[in-house]
Fold these 4 entries.
Entry 1:
Amino acid sequence: MNLACAVRPWGRAHALHQRGFTLIELLITVAILAMLAGGAMTFADLAAKRTHEQELRGALRQIREAIDAYKLAADTNKVKKMVGDSGYPPDLESLYQGVPDITDPKGEKKLYFLRRLPRDPMADPALPPVQTWGLRSYDSEADNPQPGRDVFDVYSRSTAISIGGRPYSEW
């Protein structure tokens, strides 16, 4: 008596029919792989968005600290300030191009508040960095920021919504 037939009652004839996958098994496998690939793409998109949001937070912090440093320099009479001026920089270019240090007796020294102006990562990459930011002057309202004769704050011009559900323009 053949030992294989004793263990498996169906014998050799049934073994010949079990060589591949059925069409349904293949379709289920492909469907599962498609769902996993779709989930991986979603996670990749989420990771990219999170990276851009971290860049935006860092850029906003860097520019706002430079604006505050300029204001401090103006209040301590290191930067020329006219009567009636707020003491905030007149434009973003002043932060990285430098302004004359009026405490320097020779008048040759400049004060720099940024090495370079970071760009808004949510903006069109073709725009120069200075054009990617929305500007708020000291005289404008917080809920309706408008440019003016100085730069009190910056914000993203993007209309997109963050992962947390807040518009980037409100950061």
Entry 2:
Amino acid sequence: MKFEDLKAFLLRGNIVDLAVAFVVAVAFGAVVASLVNDVIMQIVAAIIGQPDFSSLSFDLNGSPIYYGKFLNAVINFVIIGTVVFYFVVVPVNAMMAKHKKEPPADPSIKKCPECLSDIPADARKCAFCASPQNMGDMLAEA
């Protein structure tokens, strides 16, 4: 294996983009984890009285079942999902909708008011439902 081949592989756009995305995701994960553990779970603790449920358990035939750890994981999952949705997905969707450009309407085509089919703008009758079109133009000719 040549060094040039390794260099070409490592400097491909996809590999570099993936590495950057991974680093950003790890940093974002730390921010979200801090928000959940240091802010939101403290609010839960103020309401319920306990921010960490990992010590909750019961014995089943002498074996401890730590349902509190599972409860912590479920709460963290719901909170992280909510945070990601409202602070990432919603703003990105709004930004994409703002910058989305619709193609201009074709002036040679219009919708039939009766059947809503696309017909030529100069048509006198709809080819689909036979309803008269351009009533103003037809009256002006008469």
Entry 3:
Amino acid sequence: MKKLLTLLLPVLLTVFGTSAWAAEDLEIVNGEHWVSSSLEQKRAYLFGIGNVLEIEQAMAGDDYEARRGRSIIHVLLDGLSGISIANIVTQLDKFYADHSDQIKRPVIEVLYLEMALPNL
């Protein structure tokens, strides 16, 4: 996993380097980052999460089903299955617009608790 992050970090910094996402240290992306980002940045973030989920699933191999209940991977993959990236962007935009008091809440938490988990 550390190797994957090392490989992805330069790409992420290139994509997000000139926006509100730029920082000395990699931060957990929250609603403040989300609402100030362009559509391309939002899509890139979601594609990145999707790629990591797919890689984790592939690396688990035959052990994937045995890990059910001990990982957020299943919840995110199953709960967001069939929902387009465009729809997820729209839902996240709406969530942060409707819940301005939760603007510091991490995007991954909103994806997990507000979008994926209720769909299971």
Entry 4:
Amino acid sequence: MSLVAGVPPAPTLRLPDMDGNPVDLAAYRGKMVLVNFWATWCPPCRKEFPSLGRVRKLFRPADFEVMAVNVGEDPETAFSFAGSPDFPVLFDRNSQAMEHWQVKGLPTTLVVDRQGRLALRAVGGREFDNPAIVAQLKSLLK
């Protein structure tokens, strides 16, 4: 994952979850949040998805959260692939959040620091519980 130049404020992110309830990134201020943009038709997205749950378990819930933003699909399609993960899965049905976050391709992951700023970006598939990535996340939490 690479550093985001200038550490700008994270764009607004308020999307419905699998039950249609709105989830707002602003409510997570004070936590580091890994925001992953993905789709079920994207092979690298499918490959990295299980690692999102694994990396989430490596950190205290008070410090760290994962949000998986499904782009362009309906909840049934995402649920048939993802099941019921232990982190929020949000739905960007019209790709407006993807555009607002300047995501050019899937998967793209951004890490929002405790102050609500974009700190890290990764384009392409990753194993988020890889020791090098975990070390990056831990240093960002300090």
